[in-house]
Amino acid sequence: MLITDDKFLFFDTAVTKSITNMSLKPGDVAKSPQNPLFKEDFFSEPPRPWEARYDNGYPNVFYDAEYGLYRCYYTLFSKDDVSANTPPEARRGSQYVPKPGRETSLAYAYSKDGTEWVKPSLGTVQFAGDSDNNLIMRNAHGASVFRDERETDPGKRYKMMLRLDDEPRLLAASFSADGIHWREPIPWEPKERLIKADTHNFAFRDGHSGKYILISRHWNQGVRVVVRSESDDFIHWSKPAEVYRGIGSDDQIYSMPIFRYGNLYIGLAAIYRDGDRELAHWDKVDCELTYSGDTITWNRICPGTPFIPRGAGEYPDGDCDSGCIYPSVPVFHPDRIDLYYMGGNGQHTNFRETGLCVASIGLDRFAGYEPSDLSREGCLETSVLKMTGSRRLHLTADVWDNGYVKAEIRDRSGKPVDGYRFEQFRTITETTTGGTASWEQNGEIGMPDAGFTIRFRVKNAKLYAGEMRQR
C-alpha cells in the first residue's frame, strides 16, 4: 500500500499497477536557441589558455538566492597539448589521441539570468604564472559543488567533492564560505584508492534522510558501474558499493547526478555507447532517466530513449550537442524546470568542442503515459493508495485536440465508489499542471482509513503526476 501524502509520478512502478493501451514516454524538452551559452575559449580572442578542452564538463549549476546568481562549476582540461596544438579548423578527419601530461581543473562562471554567463577573473589560482583566470582549483577531477542550506558552520556553507588527480588519486572533500575561496581538500580515509572515480563525483545533502550521498563510478567486469556512499559529516564516508549498471558495453552509465522530486530520487544518467562500432551512436553519450525510492535500488525510465536528445549531425558540422550530453541537476522555477548540460559536438574519445547548454521542461513532465494507439482510449490504474485525512486530487497532464482525462475511485475489491464514478467526474479537457480533479458532488477524497485505487481513462492526452493536497 502506497502512502500518498506527497506528489506521485505515474512512471513509478510503485504507483502504477496496470495499463491498457498506454505507453510510457519521456516528456518533451525544449532546447534554448541560444545554445551554447558559453564554450571553450582557448582559441577565442582574447584567449583563455587554461580552457584547452572541456571534455565532459560535469557541470554543477544552481541558483544561489543569497547572491542572486546562477552559479556553474565545471571540470576542464587546463592542460592538453593535443587540443592546444590543433585548432578546430584543423581537426576535421583527425583522431584525438591524448598525450601524457593532461591536467584537470575546476572552473567557475556565473549568470544573473541563467542565459548570459560571465567567466570572472577570480585571482585565486595561478596558471602559467598568472592568476587572472576563473579557475577554482587545479588537479581537481569531476568535482561536484553545492550550497548546503542546513549547514550551521558558515565556513562550510558550500561543499565540494572531487577526485585529486595527484597520485594515488583519492576522493576528497573541500569547504568554502562563499563558493570562491576553498579550503585545502581533505582526502578520504583510509588513504587508498577505493574506486576509480573518473567521473562526475556527485554529492548532495539528502533533505529526506539528512545524510550526504555520493554517486560516483567504478569498473566491474570491464564496464562502468554506478557506486554509492553516504556520510554524516561529509568527511567520513561509507565504503562505496555498486547500486546500478547498464546493459553491456553499449549501455554504460558514465555519470548520474541525482535529485529528489516528490517521493522519489531521479537520476540523469549519461549513457556511454561503446558497443558495435558500426552503429551511428557508437562512442557517443545520451542522457536518459532513472529513478529510485532510496538512492540504492534504481530503475530506468524508457531505456534506449533519450530524455535530452542529442542534436543532429556529425562532427564537425553537427549541432553543438550532437555527440555527447553530460547533465547537471535541474534548476527549478515556479513554471518550469531548466536542464543545464555540457553538450559536445563529437564522439567521446575524439575531437569535440563542448559548451554549456540548457533545455526546459514543464513541471512534473519527466515522463508520462499516453495511449499507444492515439485513436483509442487508454486506461491506467494505480496501486492501492492510502492517505492521511481528506484531500483533494491534483493532476498534471497534457491534453491535445479532442482529448480528455477521466478518473474513478475504486475500493480495494475493485468496485467503483459511489460519488466517485467516471460519469460523475468533471472531465479534464485542457492541459493542466497540478490542476484540481473533482467529481460533481465530491471535491475531496475522504477515505483516509481504507485503501483505494484510482482508475484513469485517457484519450489524446498524457498523464504525468498526481498529488493529494489538503485544503
Automatic annotation (TrEMBL):
Q: Which domain of life is it from?
A: Bacteria
**InterPro entries registered for this protein in UniProt:** Glyco_hydro_beta-prop_sf
Query: What is the name listed in the Swiss-Prot or TrEMBL entry for this protein?
Result: Glycosyl hydrolase family 32 N-terminal domain-containing protein
Source lineage: Bacteria, Bacillati, Bacillota, Bacilli, Bacillales
